[in-house]
Amino acid sequence: MLKIGVGPSSSHTLGPWRAAERWITELKDQNIFDSVTAVKVDLYGSLSLTGKGHATDLAVVLGLYGADPEQIPVASIPEIIEQVKSCKKLRFNNEKEIPFDFKTAITFNRKFLPFHANAITFTAFLPEKKETSTFYSIGGGFVIKEERKNAKKNIKVFNTLPYPIEKGSDLLAYCKEAKACISEIVLENEKSIRTETEIEFELQRIWTTMLECMYTGCHTQGNLPGGLNVRRRAYDIHKNLKGELPYNSPEEWLQTIRRTEVKFRAILKWVSCFALSVNEVNAALGRVVTAPTNGSAGVIPAVLMYYLVIENHNAGFKEIQQFLLVAGEIGSIFKKGATISAAMGGCQAEIGVSSAMAAGALCELMGGNAEQVLVAAEIAMEHHLGLTCDPVGGLVQIPCIERNSMGAIKAIHAAELALDTDPENVKVPLDKVVDTMWKTAKDMHADYKETSEGGLAVAVGLSDC
């Protein structure tokens, strides 16, 4: 549920990027990669309607180019894209040169394919035939094919877990049986797949990326790319809050903020600053952690920073790991029972889920038991139900960036409410709100699910900005 990638969208950028990588693997497995003379890409549904604003075409080219979204220096992306555009040639998987014209090699088809709203079809031209393959980007950077060839393998792994979890009720039952908190149950599942050293390494890598992203956003000024000329705000907010203490790295920056006396009125400003900083980096094709998506990437780091900066100055990596484990499991429950794709469920599937993840994780860190953790997640999602996705200009900027700030603040409040709640008096369990969220998603009009054809995207055109 927590992946490192390049912005601005997990479903529209990271997903198509990974799909291109998987397609290349398919070609190699069929021993036809070396015979490919040209390629074509068709984008369907939401990938087409908001694809240009979400840099889907750029992501596809970078995937075909063989670049890794976790490792590529983001500063090199414009140079690679410009080279392909000007030369009309692509270094396919960085192995062989083939003709590639952006204007003809990528087609934006407005129609939706039946299986999922985010569809992408690759065509490989061979000397005497052509081969096609269709992938679906289902949110959070996850990519599948309609036949779900990997499904049996995933089910097999799932069934070998010491605590296989589909729903919140499963999680609670395991916690009671093992007399353990949620993070301990999740960690045992992780340890059945990989070593503790590997788990700590990956979680540290995720946290480091989050911290660096916030640091970059708080120290970068100017306008965001894309045509809306949205001014970055994290820089000015941070400048007014940070004081004069010196620092030279993201880690020193964190410790400096912890030493800063934060007045009550400034607490929400700091939370907003952290959230805005991440999603401004995301909007500028920077490196972020999908949590569970790129469009909602600012909520979890902002709430975690709130805990580290406001609630517990003595917290270290142990608490960071605990937070990420709980958040990831809650996100997984939503993914299994509903969706984390805005193209399928609107923004409730992104900001709503991320707020629920952050609320539950914060609740455990602040002493909440397993029941209260799920209450916190439920409260956060309950108050995001029905939230539409209507990005102005197809860009992950308006209202997306501000929504991360709102989602983070709601998460903190949800955790506080849950800590003062007796779970015996709860009327709406987490599983019910997951079911309701999915029903709401299916009932929502298509124009309000990441199409830029409804809501603010229509009411406020590019000319109005």
- Helix % is 40-55%
Q: List the secondary-structure elements in sequence, H or E.
A: EHEHHHEEHEEEEHHHHHHHEHHHHHHHH
Question: What is the global morphology?
Answer: globular
**Strand order, largest beta sheet:** 5-2-6-7-8
- Beta content: 5-15%
Largest sheet: 5 strands, mixed
Note the gap between the termini.
Answer: 34 Å
Number of helices: 20
| Unreliable spans | none
- Average pLDDT confidence is 95
**In total, how many beta strands?**
9
Give the radius of gyration.
22 Å
Helix-and-strand structural type:
alpha+beta
Overview of this protein structure:
The protein starts with a strand and ends in a 6-residue tail after the last helix. The mean pLDDT is 95. It is 53% helix and 11% strand. Strands 5-2-6-7-8 form a 5-stranded mixed β-sheet. The protein has a two-stranded antiparallel ribbon with strand order 1-9. The protein is built from 20 helices and 9 strands. It has 465 residues and is of the alpha+beta class.
Name a few traits of the molecule.
465 residues, 20 helices
Summarize the structure.
With 465 residues, the chain is α+β, with helices and mostly antiparallel strands. It has helices at 10-29, 46-49, 56-65, 77-87, 102-105, 151-160, 168-178, 182-191, 196-218, 234-241, 250-259, 264-283, 299-311, 317-337, 342-345, 351-365, 370-382, 400-419, 430-443, 456-459; strands at 3-6, 38-45, 89-92, 96-99, 106-109, 118-125, 130-139, 142-144, 287-290. The protein starts with a strand and ends in a 6-residue tail after the last helix.
